[in-house]
Amino acid sequence: SYSFCTLLEERGGPMAEVEESHIDPETPQLEAGWEDELGRPEHVKVSRLDEKKIEVIRILHRATFPVRYPNSFYEFLVEVAAEWSWVAEYKDVVVGAICCKYTDGKVYIMTLGVLEPYRNLGIASYLMRIATKYAQAHPKVKYMALHVQTTNTLALEFYRAKGFKVHSTIEKYYSRLEDSSAYLLIKNTE
After folding, report:
1. Residues labelled catalytic
2. pTM
3. How does DSSP assign 76-143, residue by residue?
């Protein structure tokens, strides 16, 4: 079983840059329960990211990503990106999250991760469907975007299956990782 304290001690890695952003005040109006219409996996509950869950998200990120994000990233999540970010719980245990931000007509997926023992249960796909539906409901969102390491074939296959296409390749995008090249993936939402 996973011990978050152990994960916190064992994980580490390079720091990531936090890009400045702003959020559009036009919040999509979706009816209550809209997330359930998207095929919620059994035993999974999803809620918005909030300040109470940020430490668990920090630990989740350390367990699932090769990048160690600075404190400013988590402050940004709470202060700016919470409207576009969701947390997944499996039987009341936080096991995954999608953290996005809105900037100038696009929703950028900063992170999407699920703890390894809970993968292949449809949790990441469900989180992606929620973010996509929310983006499509926003009148100013034209597309979604994200970066993925060029060597991460599983992630690339996952995003392609969700309608994302490789837009470009950026050499040395992850400046502190050995596999530093990334694809910029784009998905139209209009």
Report:
1. 108, 147
2. 0.81
3. HIIIIIGGGEEEEEETTEEEEEEEEEEETTEEEEEEEEE-GGGTTSSHHHHHHHHHHHHHHHSTT--E
